[in-house]
């Protein structure tokens, strides 16, 4: 039969382990909160830059490379991450994990599209005003056609007094979206990993307690 001192030491040991696991859990939850806020901010920025870029040009190719859909998904994922900090339920954290994995795939697709088309807009440096629009094409040293509209690769933008500056603005917006989506891919990957660790630590706490 165990003595009272042995029972007391055993209880103290279990209490100490429970407190340690609780502190670890709170630390991971705080990390989830930070990652959730970052996802919300990145999502809002991606949506804002994408929508602004889409108002500059009627080109379907450029509009499709503005991944506002990735931004909305990212913002939703971040909100769930913030909720998971307030209500650290396994179901909520699992949902945040799934949304973060979805965010990785959408952000990766968005980064590919935005980066490719940002490079395309950067290469179309020769801009001119044609009727009710701005048209840009590649500048070449050999004799050129009468206008950019006769080129195979060109960019059409909504009318603006300075076509060159609006092209630069579109290029900067697309490169900004490119950088944001790449960073979002990294953040969503970290969020998914942290969620898996948090779920594992919750299971340990339940076993110990």
From TrEMBL:
- GO cellular component entries: membrane
Phosphoprotein found in the keyword field:
no
Q: How does it sit in the membrane?
A: Multi-pass membrane protein
Membrane-spanning ranges: 28-54, 66-85, 91-113, 173-200
List keywords of the entry alphabetically.
Membrane, Transmembrane, Transmembrane helix
- Please state where this protein is localized: Membrane
Spell out the family assignment given in the record's similarity comment. Belongs to the ENTREP family.
**How is this protein named in the record?**
F189B protein
What species was this sequence derived from?
Aptenodytes patagonicus
User: Lineage of the source organism?
Assistant: Eukaryota, Metazoa, Chordata, Craniata, Vertebrata
